[in-house]
Write a sequence for this structure.
């Protein structure tokens, strides 16, 4: 096969209002030859698939989707309005071409039209007018003329539904709400229930419109994130300032941000000092002081003074864009509950259709029942058979939870992660940068065979190329004291243990005391000093050559202010906590005692993985780390959460990220996950409960056709509105 013929293509599909809509789109395209790995995301309005263009072209994909009444446009292009109702023959619309990874357009996509301007809205108004006219005729004239009015209202209202049902049946999907609706309405006409048939058509149109409005509200949470980034940026061009579209900014440009302006791009402050409100991005309400060298995020608000910022990421890759992309992509990571319900619904609808057929024919044939009565009840059962409410019950809740979390700096990669997080019974924390500030300070320098300045100079030389917080603290202290360590060479790392480099012709090593002990250079007096410093909760590193111990450095990293309260909060939720640290046992014990949790110390990266494997055998484990040094541990736990304010690793490595760098956001994330799962259970109960009740009442003849249609569309609206409650959830 030609390798160029198979590609991953992506489109935006408009007009999808419920889970069954997404299933229809998926079913229509996955039957085409050369199509595989079809992923249709309802809330993101996205369709992605693998396509062998030698068998099926992108234009044929688009015609198949338009044939069902949905709008479709390649990624990056302006969205297309859904067709609705009758559709023109294939080829009547210009075909687009799939795109693999187009950058977002400079302008935001247009807002959806008001409900009454859409095809479903016009259908509702039309069927409502026809029904009102028929009722007017019945009240004023009555008799056959009124009956004909209801017949006309039914036929005109059901025609586009029947047309779409036929197209879906041709695409291999006979069991759809459109097909059931058409059969029920036409069947009611045949048995003489024309007035009720017209009412059912109107209520079906009303339900379709309400579903669309509810789905639009659910998407507003994601759309609001995109709106945070200003559309115009003020760029420094020589001595002048020019305004350009923010989407056209390139890395390295300098932008001016005035007090009160939103920051147009991720970047680094190069001039000015000001408080910046990052709440639109991280949910943190207290403005943070930004000065030259500080990182800022697109969408944040400059509160006090003018800033000049060097752009560090292009528009399609800024923090807001990546958060939006993560939230949208998360819809594809479906929860196990959602996958189960989707499998269940495939058998549920045919089973109900079969039951409706039996209800319609068995009583008249076996018990002498009246055909009109039992056919009517069978038709009502048909309308109960559509699983729209059940199918959307999970994704609607997940989408709302993801949006609510994103607004509070809690990023989660999909429903599978939310479900796993809700079951968490043990949280394992890394220490440095997670439970502690990640900003250690050198508190003492102990010279063993040289001067304190020499100890600090050699340590800084060895650690000058490292990025670990301890290394940065050593280099910063040496720089503050004006020491010079030029001439360092052959630097390298000893993973999980230390670092080495050559300075002034001698190979020096900086690492944990056990490293010096294994090298045979640790003295008894030095070990006693190490023990005393570690008992005070300090981290000790040794500086040594192959033949001698040069000295010791003691560092201290203070616990985060909210760490102890967060651990206590987890305990109240029935979740245990443990600290996994590579630091020494005494320092680990001191920090653990301060925060009130158990600990395991002296762990290398592979030891943390082994520890997590043991913990996983006993409970559902969430690992929280800095997203850089703890990648293996994050991948090992049932759920891995990275602490990091917008870093690439924090957003892309783990199962989720806490943008505000707050330990308190760990219990907040668990509360959000548990609330989402409670909401899902409520939705499933609503969807199945309403249908169960009306199934019984319909068979007993208590309720009829118009109540049956409310059991479907009404339940769909109810579960969507219930899911929308999560948008207002405050997890912290």
């Amino acid at each position: 096969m030609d390798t160029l013929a198979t590609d991953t293509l992506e489109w935006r599909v408009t007009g999808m209002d419920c889970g069954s809509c997404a299933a229809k789109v998926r079913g229509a395209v996955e039957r085409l030859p050369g199509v595989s790995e079809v992923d249709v995301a309802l809330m993101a309005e996205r369709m992605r698939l693998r396509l062998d263009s030698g068998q099926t072209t992108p234009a044929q994909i688009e015609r198949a989707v338009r044939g069902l009444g949905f709008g479709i446009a390649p990624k990056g292009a302006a969205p297309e309005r859904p067709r609705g109702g009758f559709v023109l023959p294939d080829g009547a619309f210009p075909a687009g071409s799939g795109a693999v990874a187009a950058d977002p357009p400079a302008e935001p996509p247009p807002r959806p039209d008001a409900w009454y301007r859409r095809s479903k809205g016009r259908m509702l108004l039309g069927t409502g007018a026809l029904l009102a006219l028929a009722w007017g005729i019945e009240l004023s004239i009555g008799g056959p003329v009124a009956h004909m009015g209801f017949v006309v209202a039914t036929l005109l209202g059901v025609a586009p539904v029947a047309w779409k049902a036929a197209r879906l049946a041709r695409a291999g999907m006979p069991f759809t709400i459109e097909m059931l609706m058409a059969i029920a309405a036409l069947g009611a006409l045949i048995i003489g229930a024309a007035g009720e048939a017209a009412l059912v058509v109107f209520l079906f149109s009303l339900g379709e419109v309400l579903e669309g409005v509810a789905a639009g509200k659910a998407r507003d949470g994601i759309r609001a994130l995109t709106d945070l980034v200003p559309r115009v940026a003020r760029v420094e061009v020589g001595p002048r300032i020019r305004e350009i579209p923010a989407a056209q900014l390139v890395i390295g440009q300098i932008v001016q941000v005035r007090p009160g302006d939103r920051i147009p791009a991720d970047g680094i402050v190069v001039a000015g000092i000001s408080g910046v409100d990052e709440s639109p991005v991280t949910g943190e309400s207290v403005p943070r002081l930004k000065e030259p060298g500080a990182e800022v995020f697109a969408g944040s608000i400059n509160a006090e003074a003018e800033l000049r910022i060097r752009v560090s990421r292009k528009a399609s890759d800024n923090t807001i864009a990546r958060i939006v992309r993560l939230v949208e992509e998360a819809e594809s990571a479906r929860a196990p509950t959602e996958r189960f319900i989707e499998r269940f619904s495939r058998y549920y609808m045919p089973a109900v259709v079969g039951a409706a057929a039996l209800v319609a024919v068995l009583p008249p044939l076996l018990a002498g029942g009246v055909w009109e009565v039992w056919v009517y009840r069978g038709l009502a059962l048909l309308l109960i058979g559509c699983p729209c409410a059940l199918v959307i019950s999970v994704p609607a809740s997940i989408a709302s939870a993801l949006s609510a979390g994103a607004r509070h700096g809690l990023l989660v990669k999909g429903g599978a992660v939310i479900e796993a997080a809700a079951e968490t019974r043990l949280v394992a924390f890394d220490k440095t940068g997670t439970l502690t500030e990640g900003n250690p300070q050198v508190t003492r320098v102990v010279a063993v065979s040289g001067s304190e300045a020499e100890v600090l100079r050699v340590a800084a030389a060895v650690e000058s190329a490292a990025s670990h917080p301890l290394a940065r603290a050593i280099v910063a202290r040496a720089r503050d004291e004006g020491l010079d360590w030029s001439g360092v060479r052959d630097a390298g790392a000893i993973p999980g243990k230390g670092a080495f480099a050559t300075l002034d012709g001698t190979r020096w090593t900086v690492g944990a005391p056990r490293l010096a002990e294994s090298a045979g250079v640790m003295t008894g007096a030095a070990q006693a000093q190490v023990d005393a410093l570690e008992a005070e909760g300090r981290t000790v590193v040794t500086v040594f050559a192959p033949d001698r111990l040069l000295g010791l450095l003691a560092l201290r990293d203070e616990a985060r202010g909210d760490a102890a309260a967060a651990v206590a909060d987890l305990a109240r939720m029935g979740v245990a906590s443990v600290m996994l640290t590579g630091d020494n046992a005494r320092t680990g014990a001191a920090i653990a005692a301060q925060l009130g949790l158990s600990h395991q110390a002296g762990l290398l990266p592979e030891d943390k993985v082994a520890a997590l494997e043991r913990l996983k055998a006993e409970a559902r484990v969430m690992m929280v780390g800095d997203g850089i040094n703890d990648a293996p541990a994050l991948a090992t736990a049932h759920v891995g959460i990275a602490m990091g304010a917008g870093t690439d690793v924090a957003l892309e490595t783990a199962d989720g990220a806490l943008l505000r760098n707050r330990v308190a956001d760990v219990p907040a994330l668990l509360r959000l996950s548990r609330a989402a799962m409670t909401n899902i259970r409520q939705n499933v109960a609503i969807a199945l409960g309403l249908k169960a009740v009306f199934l019984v009442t319909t068979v007993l003849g208590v309720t009829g056709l118009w109540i049956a249609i409310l059991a479907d569309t009404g339940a769909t609206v109810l579960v969507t509105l219930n899911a929308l409650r999560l948008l207002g959830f405050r997890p912290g």
Notes: The chain is about 50% helix and 20% strand. Residues 232-317 form a domain with the Calcium-transporting ATPase, cytoplasmic transduction domain A fold (CATH 2.70.150.10).
